[in-house]
Design brief:
The protein is mainly alpha-helical and 507 residues long. Helix content is 45%, strand content 10%.
């Protein structure tokens, strides 16, 4: 561990909604920073303006806020190492690219896209793959093959050019990844990546390394898809003379499809019926709406908890963690190398746990907007009672309606199986007597109703199931639901009697 203060960053590109894999990367950075008393930064990497999507940056900020992953530095937050959008740092990158050309670590390339396309096509015809690298750069249109005078002449005339990294020959780049252990690359297998584009913008590779250095980042914790970029980034640090102060690397495992084969994608979610984004996303071009965990009714603490256990475990049987517990327990040593399979049913299981942990008043508040939307107007006391009666059978706030809608609206239909099994020829006559009994009940409270109902049934010698199931059917529409006498109390005497009368008429 470096003796200096831990500083980590989450550096997404605003090219669309933030995938849950990206949120997990942010989470692990956040936990690592908090565990070591360090700083968690947000940097927006918007160097590729062709892929920029309006609204994506706001989405990223809102998603992090919803999850409780609040950066101490970033766009809209400030900090002494800003600005924190790479597009606003544009002017400084050219000098670093030019510095590498001057030191012999990079070179100007004048090849047109047509030239490169032709070379790729020719290679494909020979069943080969064209790569701009140490094997081919000596035959191409660049400052390694042109005279210094010719190079300056072409630049002065305004001819477009890019700057490529000059990959050294046959050099082993060996690094100890904090998750994967020793990782080794040979430069003969690596191409000369573009560092600076013709449009005056740096590529990810240059901007990333320069910014991480200038922002004093101590640890780069990112997805394993960036592992092939690590040797180039290490060589860039060396080329700039920053090798001694460069960050340590940790590459997180992929989040896999529920089948366990391949990276989890939006298509998997669409096909199997679960979201892959933290918040709902509306595509600004097509208008297509993609589901989000927040809008699907997940609590942020459940979402964070399930993400934390995708690729990490505390080494104990514990599965439910508060954010403070995650910070206390988290370590990169316990992050696995292999991909982590996402289980949508486990996600629901996590939400159920956090749902059940919440007090009834909080759930009642969350339930109110749904009732308002359905045109239901009842007292807070009634909502609170209903929540208390049905919450055990719920995983989401929306389930409160599904499990308890009969408290607010009379059933419009009756379960056919229950009718066939329990609604007999003499049932209407018996229910008429129950109606009379209910009319005579003076104190309309569950205990009082139950007591008088029981006395009545015993006097008649009727089996409870013979009458209670048809009464429940009349009140609820099915044979399921909360305690029958609680239902009677909450919907009121008049409504109870009316529903039984309606059932007699209908059935």
């Amino acid at each position: 561990m470096n003796a200096k203060k831990v500083r980590v960053r989450f550096a997404p590109s605003p090219t669309g909604p933030l995938h849950m894999g990206g949120v997990r990367t942010a989470l692990f950075n956040y936990l690592f920073a908090k565990k070591h008393g360090g700083d968690f930064l947000l940097r927006i990497e918007d160097t590729d303006q062709t892929r920029y999507v309006p609204g994506a940056e706001d989405y990223i900020l809102e998603a992090l806020q919803w999850c409780g992953l609040n950066p101490v530095e970033g766009p809209g937050i400030g900090g002494e190492f800003g600005p924190y959008r790479q597009s606003e740092r544009k002017a400084m990158y050219r000098q670093y690219a030019e510095q590498l050309v001057e030191s012999g670590h990079a070179y100007y390339a004048f090849d047109t896209s047509e030239d490169l396309s032709r070379l790729r096509t020719e290679a494909e015809a020979k069943k080969e793959v064209f790569s701009y690298d140490l094997h081919t750069r000596g035959q191409l249109n660049n400052s390694l093959t042109l005279s210094a005078e010719k190079v300056q002449q072409q630049i002065a005339s305004g001819e477009p050019y890019i700057i490529r990294f000059k990959m050294p020959e046959n050099t082993d780049v060996v690094e100890k990844d904090l998750i994967r252990g020793e990782v080794k690359f040979n430069t003969n297998q690596l191409d000369d990546k573009v560092l600076f584009k013709a449009d005056g913008m740096p590529t990810y590779h240059l901007a990333n390394v320069v910014d991480d250095h200038l922002m004093q980042i101590t640890h780069v914790i990112r997805g394993e898809e960036w592992l092939p970029s690590m040797p180039l980034h290490i060589l860039l640090y060396e080329a700039f003379g920053w090798g001694e102060n460069r960050p340590q690397f940790a590459h997180l495992p992929l989040i896999l499809k529920p089948t366990g084969k391949g990276k989890l994608s939006k298509r998997d979610g669409d096909k199997m019926g679960f979201p892959v984004f933290p918040l709902q996303w509306t595509d600004p071009k097509s208008g297509d709406v993609a589901r989000g965990y927040r809008e699907d009714g997940y609590f942020p603490e459940a979402f964070v908890n399930l993400l934390a256990l995708l690729g990490w475990n505390a080494g104990t049987e514990q599965e439910f963690f508060s954010m403070d517990e995650l910070i206390q327990e988290f370590s990169l040593e316990r992050v696995v190398k292999a991909g982590a399979r996402f289980d949508p049913e486990k996600a629901k299981w996590f939400n159920r746990h956090y749902f059940q942990q919440k007090d009834d008043a909080e759930l009642a508040e969350a339930f109110k907007p749904m009732l308002k939307e359905k045109g239901v107007e009842v007292s807070n006391e009634t909502i609170l009672k209903v929540v208390g009666l049905v919450k055990e059978r719920c995983e989401f706030v929306a389930d409160l309606w599904e499990q308890g809608n009969y408290f607010f609206v009379a059933p419009e239909s009756y379960d056919e199986k229950t009718v066939k099994k329990k609604w007999k020829a003499d049932t209407p006559g018996k229910l008429q007597e129950i109606i009379q009994l209910f009319k005579d009940v003076e104190v309309w409270e569950a205990d009082s109703i139950k007591e008088q109902f029981s006395d009545f049934m015993n006097d008649k010698g009727w089996g409870f199931g013979m009458v209670m199931v048809p009464v429940r059917l009349a009140l609820v529409g099915t044979s399921a639901g909360a305690d029958l006498f609680d239902i009677c109390e909450i919907i009121g005497k008049n409504e109870t009697i009316q529903r039984i009368e309606r059932a007699i008429e209908t059935l």
